[in-house]
Specification:
single chain; alpha+beta; Gyrase A, domain 2; Alpha-Beta Plaits; 10 helices; about 25% helix
């Protein structure tokens, strides 16, 4: 039953022309079950691994995730920070060189066009990663916004983007570089040379709640792509008892347990960061009256700042736990007596770590953590409990 629900969640139209990441051949050789996802052929599971086994492996050892389908950008020029501070609520002055932060691309109404990671290389040079499923609209949006500035260059590029996730990630990766990885903390990045001679962009980051790294590995030539494949395969061969390739199914359940948003589920263009309980994405420096020039500079600021000031949102993003059939997107949520509709599920899954089910939802703020609710699943109202996020505490490497 679990396998069926995973397939429905990740399959997109098979009729589209699909792209392949530089690691595609390695996935096939390793027995990856390839499915259409965000315009690419991506592994959802691998042979001899169930979803639960893959998920638990990352929580205890090391999982390799091919996330090369994500879109990578460079934003360069004297106006680069002005552009990024207009289209996102980030305060780039708070970042030191080679620090990064989660942020969101905003439309004029404060809705989320996409979520993103912004890494500051210097005041005039930024590296940005956005979601695979939003490629076309993100490019069009950034190009349009960039046209309002004079000194700016926005380019996108393709490379191998490899996430190495799990409590043993540093132990494994350290074998392949002379860089002291213990000095690179979560939220920081650096250009690092691997022992095979490749210079990569390394960030201590991930989408699982576990410690780990995301590596951008140049793959524009066949030789570079082959080198990236060899590195991927060597990680597995050198540590067969620690390292496994992991597919989309476990990536989703891991991020869900960690309380992380997925675009198109918890976020969309009609949802502001405040609606999504992401007020922390708007730092104090972009709210204060003394910084009114900066404050008024980001898209949708009037809407978002009024929501913060007036506490005007009526619902919030929160967790739900339950037993039995797992909640799925758009399942309705009712009060405990089943009479009043109070919210809806945005994404849900069985939880390999905790047992039972976990889900994220938008629920009327009047209903507090610990409240019993009913979830309408397949025409039947089933018991659930409003639960604090995250369901599983993150194990991020911090000083």
């Amino acid at each position: 039953m679990l396998r069926t629900s995973i397939n429905k969640r990740f399959y997109s139209s098979a009729s589209e022309t699909l792209l392949k990441t530089p690691l595609y051949d390695a996935h096939v050789q390793l027995g990856g079950k390839m499915v259409p996802y965000a315009g690419f052929e991506m592994p959802v599971l691998y042979k001899d691994q169930s979803h639960i086994e893959s998920h638990n492996w990352v929580r205890s050892k090391v999982g390799l995730f091919d996330v090369s389908h994500m879109l990578q950008h460079t934003v360069i020029g004297k106006d680069s920070s002005k552009l990024l501070q207009k289209i996102t609520p980030i305060d780039l002055s708070s970042l030191k060189p080679f620090q990064f932060s989660l942020s969101v691309l905003l439309n004029d109404k404060g809705g989320v066009i996409d979520d993103c990671i912004i890494t500051k290389h210097d005041d005039n040079h930024y590296y940005v990663v956005t979601n695979a499923g939003c490629r076309a609209k993100d490019i069009a949006f950034i190009k349009k916004e960039a046209s309002q500035f004079n000194d700016i260059s926005h380019e996108t590029f393709e490379s191998t983007l490899l996430a190495i996730q799990g409590p043993k990630a540093q132990h494994v990766l350290q074998k392949f570089t002379n860089e002291d990885l213990s000095k690179i903390y979560f939220g920081n990045a650096k250009f690092v040379q691997l022992h095979n001679g490749q210079l990569i962009h390394l960030a201590r980051s991930g989408y699982t709640g576990e410690d780990g790294f995301e590596l951008s590995i140049p793959s524009t030539t066949p030789e570079d792509a082959k080198s990236a494949q060899d590195f991927f395969q060597t990680l597995i061969n050198e540590y067969p008892d620690l390292v496994r390739p992991i597919g989309l199914a476990a990536r989703d359940s891991l991020r869900l347990e960690a309380g992380m948003c997925l675009y198109g589920h918890e976020l969309n263009e009609d949802i502001t960061p405040i609606d999504a309980s992401l007020a922390w994405l708007i730092p104090k420096s972009r709210r204060d009256d003394v910084n009114i020039r900066i404050k008024d500079g980001f898209n949708g600021a009037s809407t978002i700042l009024q929501q913060i000031k007036n506490k005007s949102t009526t619902s919030r993003r929160i967790g739900i736990t339950s037993k039995g059939p797992s909640p799925r997107d758009n399942n309705k949520i009712f009060s405990e007596d089943g009479t009043t509709e109070i919210g809806y599920i945005t994404s849900g899954s069985p939880s390999p770590t905790l047992g039972g089910n976990v889900a994220q939802a938008f629920i009327d703020k009047k209903f507090k953590i610990g409240s019993n609710v009913k979830i309408e699943i397949r025409g039947k109202k089933r018991d659930g409990v409003i639960t604090k996020l995250p369901f599983v505490e993150s194990n991020l490497y911090k000083p």
